[in-house]
Amino acid sequence: MSKKGKIFVWTLFDFANTSFSIIVVTFLYAVYFKKTVASGEPIGDLYWSFATSIAMIITAVISPILGAIADYSAGKKRFLLFFTALCILSTASLYFVQEGTIFWGIFLFVIANIGFEAGLVFYDAFLPEITEPKNYGRVSGYGFAMGYLGSLATLAIVYPFITAEKVRETFIVSAIFFLIFSIPLFLFLRDSRKNIQVHESYIKIGVGRVLNTVKHLKYYKNLATFLLAFFFYIEGVNTVIYFSGNYASTTLGFTETELLIFFITVQTTAILGSVILGIVADSIGQKKTIVITLLLWLLTVLLAIVIHDKTGFYVVGLLAGSAMGSSQSTSRSLMSKLTPPEKKTEFFGFYSFFGKSSAVLGPLVFGLVSYLTDSQRLAIFSVGFFFLIGLFILTKVKEPVAENTIQLSE
């Protein structure tokens, strides 16, 4: 298969798995869990925050071990197949979750989310095998773009189910969509098999890698400062992703159809934001571009608090979408610039660890504040602090000058 063919097949998996992200994590199941499973009670937000936090804690803990498997084992594809199947089967099983079945609603979501997130470890590990280092950022960007397109395609497919008030059926649609469009990767993308002899358990290797990374990280204070900033502001991004549907539904009274239009708006502007701010980043630098996206996020949070009508909340969606894609992709680009070439794999593993573990605190704080105050507006206010802390720490990060950037990327 040609290089372009490999890249297309690889990005098609991103097209496939976002059906889970948009339908289950962000939109329909998130709303269904609060309104139906938890009977619309404020404690539903707390339950949902527990579910998301448990899934991400488990994933954060096992990610280094999975990373060791990806680096040392001879079969990334079979592990990716396992976790993909785990996510698909658990997602389809959400169809049986109904009012009052809170335990199974949480359990199946946690298993599905672990399958989704853990699978990404092996999916990402294919990147060096399908393109050259100089094209990592570009090809990775193609994956993001295909992901947003996948979200739009999924939303278009489930629209008839939403209008017919058949929300539970959309979980099966999401699973089938993921299944169909993930198949090409398993059929056509070859797995580079390694012949490394491993004489230790993968658990020991995984733990050893994390300790080794922590030990080396203290010698790279600038990089450590960025990772700390990333931990806080991506915390805010993750919280918005997990609770935006619930917020629009509970606080503003959005119907499922209105939510569909809202998320189509968000996904569309996410594509535009990724492209436009990607060009801006090449011109003014990644750090300044991330600062712009964080200011957009703070404006988004402020508007979400003060706006009380549905029409105004679409403006919030426009801003959130434009900031979402860029804040994620530009962070990865800046990480590449700050990381020593000889330690890219080691530090990017830690970058992934920070990204996953950061999806714990924000949702938990949102759910707890919402439950204790019975106000999602106060809960969304708490999200702004994560962006503020991340922005403050980011100002301490020194971005490499052009000469160093070229040297690091070679």
Describe this structure in words.
With 410 residues, the chain is mostly helical. It is built from 16 helices and no strands. The longest helix is centred in the first third of the chain and has 30 residues, at 43-72. It is a multi-pass membrane protein. It is found in: Endomembrane system.
What is this entry, summarized?
By secondary structure, this protein is mostly helical. It is built from 16 helices and no strands. Helix 4 (76-93) runs antiparallel to helix 5 and helix 11 (256-284) packs parallel to helix 13.
Topology:
Blueprint: H1 3-26, H2 28-37, H3 43-72, H4 76-93, H5 102-124, H6 127-130, H7 136-163, H8 167-188, H9 202-217, H10 221-250, H11 256-284, H12 286-306, H13 310-338, H14 344-373, H15 376-394, H16 402-409
Helix pairs in contact: 1-2, 1-5, 1-7, 1-8, 2-10, 3-5, 3-9, 3-14, 4-5, 4-8, 7-8, 7-11, 7-13, 9-14, 10-13, 10-14, 10-15, 11-12, 11-13, 12-13, 12-15, 14-15
Which structural class do you get from the secondary structure elements? mainly alpha
- Highest-level CATH class: Mainly Alpha
The share of residues in helices is: over 70%
CATH architecture: Up-down Bundle
CATH topology: Growth Hormone, Chain: A
How many beta-strand elements? 0
List unreliable stretches of 5+ residues.
402-410
Main sheet summary: none
Query: What fraction strand?
Result: under 5%
SSE order, one letter for each helix or strand:
HHHHHHHHHHHHHHHH
Oligomeric status: single chain
How many domains would you count in the coordinates?
Answer: 1
> Over the alpha carbons, how many angstroms does the gyration radius reach?
20 Å
Distance between the termini: 26 Å
What integer is the average pLDDT?
Answer: 84
Apparent shape: globular
Supply the CATH superfamily name: MFS general substrate transporter like domains
Number of helices: 16
